[in-house]
Amino acid sequence: MPLVTAAALIVAAGRGSRASGSGLPPKQYAPLAGRPVLTHAIAAFHAVPEIQRIAVVIHPDDAELYADCVRLAPDRLLAPVIGGATRQESVRLGLEALSADAPDLVLIHDAARPLVSPDTIQGVLDALRNHEGALAAQPVADTLKRAHGDGTVSDTLSRNGLWQAQTPQGFRFALIRAAHARAAADGRDDFTDDAALAEWAGLGVALVASPRRNFKITTQEDLAMAENLLRSNEPRLETRTGTGFDVHAFCEGDHVWVGGVRIAHDKGLSAHSDGDAPLHALTDALLGAIGEGDIGQHFPPSDPRWKGAASHIFLADAAQRVATRGGRIVNVDLTILCETPRIGPHRDAIRGRVAEILGLDVARVSVKATTTERLGFTGRGEGLAAMAAATVLMPA
């Protein structure tokens, strides 16, 4: 059977709070090495070329948390699926959402396992070439004890042949979707994972050895351990800086775009796009920091696709290029030069919008404004200019 397409279904609809703490967001949105737990899981699947689509099942109350996680979303990420009351129901709803353009294979993964490696994902995919199902698992290494009700040892169990199930768990899509539908029709909602449901449905499921680091985050101790593992494996980073400059002339109009904020004005800005000089300068600063040319190379003004385009598209693309190369934006600094309009009243809005586009804390965004004391083209009120600097950490 030719295996043509594969999708990942990441289950992130749970309410577990032991890892994040009382009153805090669920563990899949807890910060881990600078990014939410869920973001790490998505990135692992995005790193496997055979995974053409990634769908995430979320709780209906988590739409804003999820949007923050995927602000710099990979191109293969689908719209989120709203989950159900149980994990089993959430998976079934996710499978139904994928069925409109059904893949040959689906890998189902818990968002609370952020340290899954691309090698483990690929191993499960490879096993599906010869099996109806496959799951990542770890051979049981510890001696197992059965306890009495009072907490004393009843007897010792043999660990021979015992494995600890992990995720991803992969299946032929049509088979696992049918198994979930059958379980729902029979009123069975007690399966603890998809492999157990598949076994009940008579599917053959293979074991794929997976490292211990692919553990499930349940407690704050687990979260701290995951943080230490990620930090210890981080590549050596070096600091890079980039600068950018842009200018646009005033023309007829009733508003200007400055740093992603629409400001009413008695003039407009002459440009192929929306003329947002600060965002253009900042885009060039990020591209310069990673040695990827300038905005004109990636979004040439000769291309009609960018006529009138919103400049946040250009800035988000530059940020994605930094992330794709394993980099991290540390801070950005904008200086806007003009006599009018007055920038001061809009400074906080500009900082917030730039932080939103880049996925940064607003404290890492600086916005300054100055005039040129009536000197030069800005002093004569002929246009608006912007300078930008960006600092990023990149693998050495």
Automatic annotation (TrEMBL):
Metabolic or biological pathway: Isoprenoid biosynthesis; isopentenyl diphosphate biosynthesis via DXP pathway; isopentenyl diphosphate from 1-deoxy-D-xylulose 5-phosphate: step 4/6; Isoprenoid biosynthesis; isopentenyl diphosphate biosynthesis via DXP pathway; isopentenyl diphosphate from 1-deoxy-D-xylulose 5-phosphate: step 2/6
Provenance organism: Hyphomicrobium nitrativorans NL23
Catalytic activity field: 4-CDP-2-C-methyl-D-erythritol 2-phosphate = 2-C-methyl-D-erythritol 2,4-cyclic diphosphate + CMP; 2-C-methyl-D-erythritol 4-phosphate + CTP + H(+) = 4-CDP-2-C-methyl-D-erythritol + diphosphate
Record gene name: ispDF
Record-linked PANTHER family: 2-C-METHYL-D-ERYTHRITOL 2,4-CYCLODIPHOSPHATE SYNTHASE, CHLOROPLASTIC
CDD domains: CDP-ME_synthetase, MECDP_synthase
UniProt function note: Bifunctional enzyme that catalyzes the formation of 4-diphosphocytidyl-2-C-methyl-D-erythritol from CTP and 2-C-methyl-D-erythritol 4-phosphate (MEP) (IspD), and catalyzes the conversion of 4-diphosphocytidyl-2-C-methyl-D-erythritol 2-phosphate (CDP-ME2P) to 2-C-methyl-D-erythritol 2,4-cyclodiphosphate (ME-CPP) with a corresponding release of cytidine 5-monophosphate (CMP) (IspF).
Annotated positions for site Positions MEP for the nucleophilic attack: R159, K216
Region span, 2-C-methyl-D-erythritol 2,4-cyclodiphosphate synthase: 240-396
Residue numbers spanned by region 2-C-methyl-D-erythritol 4-phosphate cytidylyltransferase: 1-239
Residues that bind 4-CDP-2-C-methyl-D-erythritol 2-phosphate: D246, V247, H248, H272, S273, D294, I295, G296, T370, T371, T372, E373, F377, R380
Annotated site residue numbers, Transition state stabilizer: R18, K27, H272, T371
Similarity comment text for this entry: In the C-terminal section; belongs to the IspF family.
MF GO annotations: 2-C-methyl-D-erythritol 2,4-cyclodiphosphate synthase activity; 2-C-methyl-D-erythritol 4-phosphate cytidylyltransferase activity; metal ion binding
Cofactor(s) demanded: a divalent metal cation
SUPFAM superfamilies according to UniProt: IpsF-like (SSF69765), Nucleotide-diphospho-sugar transferases (SSF53448)
EC number per UniProt: 2.7.7.60, 4.6.1.12
Gene Ontology process terms (BP): isopentenyl diphosphate biosynthetic process, methylerythritol 4-phosphate pathway; terpenoid biosynthetic process
Ranges for domain 2-C-methyl-D-erythritol 2,4-cyclodiphosphate synthase: 240-392
Name of the protein in question: Bifunctional enzyme IspD/IspF
Matching PROSITE patterns: ISPD (PS01295)
Taxonomic superkingdom: Bacteria
Keyword field: Isoprene biosynthesis, Lyase, Metal-binding, Multifunctional enzyme, Nucleotidyltransferase, Transferase
Binding residues annotated for a divalent metal cation, in chain numbering: D246, H248, H280
